Amino acid sequence: MARIAGVDIPRDKHAWVSLQYIYGIGPHLSRRILAQTKINPDTKVSELTEDEVNKLREVIDKQYKVEGELKREIQMNMKRLIEIGSYRGSRHRRNLPSRGQRTRTNARSRRGERKTVAGRGQKRGTAKK
Fold it and tell me: What is this structure's pTM?
């Protein structure tokens, strides 16, 4: 396995797909990196030479924030929003969506599993008033 930015990328996949295993690199960025290094995106990682892997490693390290550095920056941005007391910061603090989505229904992945509350809902056998 080739190791780039501290991540072992899979050998049996195309180069443009394998680069996406690195946090912070998506499909568009992986193709741009491969174009910069003049590597065919459809070559398998196992077919890349050591020189090509070193070129990839060099370009990613020098020009892009990936993995730990990017995660740290995102955490610092969230911490800054919380400290200044902004609305977005308060949403982050309470683990709720911060971009205006509704929370009455949906938002389950962000809010966590349902917490049942006693006294909610309609009782059996009683009609609505």
Answer: 0.76
- Concatenate the DSSP letters of all residues of 6-64 into one string: TEEE-SSSBHHHHGGGSTT--HHHHHHHHHHTT--TTSBGGG--HHHHHHHHHHHHHH-
In this structure, the answer to whether residues 57 and 74 fall within a common structural domain is no
| Low-confidence spans in the chain with pLDDT less than 50 | none
Each residue of 70-82: pLDDT tens digit? Answer: 999 999 999 999 9
Cross-strand partners of 44: 14
CATH number, residue 84 = 4.10.910.10
